[in-house]
């Protein structure tokens, strides 16, 4: 081998060594840099308006990033600044910068589970719950649910029936979901139940609007958990509505007085001046008094037609009721029920 060839070989070898060392340095200092947390994982929340600088600040604020320059260099190389997806992300202890960037870049976020059930008593509580769980705030929700045109367009309901837009179940959503997408999720579940055929049948069988049906069902749900009883109880209230009688529904007093969890209503509770007090005001209350299960809606849509005007829980307190056509007979049942409650010490 000539001297020139040897020199070229040596130079090439030196070049490859430099490239190898440099590559290894970049690999270990950028690609293999791992975060060290004091716990197994930490959550970060990337807001809708965040850019790369905001993401870096969030990571630094949660004590996840120590070397921001390295992270920023790699994030730009991997085009995170052009692919920042808002949401909630779980950062595991020992994750590399590359893994964190990929998590956000490819939108591998944690979904938020929202459970809409009987623990939410009214629209105010619903909006506060959503405000606490998601990026959405109470004011955004208020603006929508008070908008008559929007509610009519999306749910065929007036603002006073807004609580009826929410079908109770568990919803899995992005933390950063937009208002329009959030409403779409509610509407999707709502329309799965309120199909055209079901709407037509419900209105034909009950002669009530969809908002009135939901409101009646919210009362019935609080009277009994037994399907066939719910149908009969709905029939009692339907008869009273048609005769122009006061509904005198105890669950509406619980709602008006905010007596959540109470097992007994007293005469003093009937004194409250509220449109939800069906002992004072005729007709249905102005809106639902709880989130209504679809099973109960089905019973009310298919309510039992009979002549009963009164009902009272049986003294066995087993979820069933005694039904009567006259007030005199109802009083006998009511007295037996009151004695049973007193005997059990239920206040």
Lay out the secondary structure:
Layout: H1 3-31, E1 41-46, H2 52-61, H3 68-77, E2 87-92, H4 97-105, E3 111-115, H5 123-133, H6 138-145, H7 148-155, E4 170-174, H8 179-193, H9 196-206, H10 210-221, H11 227-242, H12 250-257, H13 294-301, E5 310-313, E6 321-324, H14 327-343
Antiparallel strand pairs: 1-2, 3-4, 5-6
Helix pairs in contact: 2-3, 10-11, 10-13, 11-13
| Helix/strand/pairing category | mainly alpha
Q: What percentage of amino acids are in beta strands?
A: 5-15%
Mean pLDDT: 91
Number of helical elements: 14
User: Helix proportion of residues, in percent?
Assistant: 40-55%
> Number of domains in the coordinates?
3
Largest sheet: 2 strands, antiparallel
> What is the H/E string?
HEHHEHEHHHEHHHHHHEEH
Enumerate the spans where pLDDT stays under 50 for 5 or more consecutive residues: 11-31
Can I get a quick summary?
The protein has 347 residues and is mainly α. The protein contains 14 helices and 6 strands. The chain folds into 3 domains: 30-105, Endolytic murein transglycosylase (Dna Ligase, domain 1, 2-Layer Sandwich); 111-193, no CATH class; 208-306, no CATH class.
Question: Please, could you describe this protein's structure?
Answer:
Helix content is 50%, strand content 9%. It has 347 residues and is mainly alpha-helical. The strands form three sheets. A two-stranded antiparallel ribbon has the order 1-2. A two-stranded antiparallel ribbon has the order 3-4. A hairpin with a 7-residue loop joins strand 5 (310-313) and strand 6.
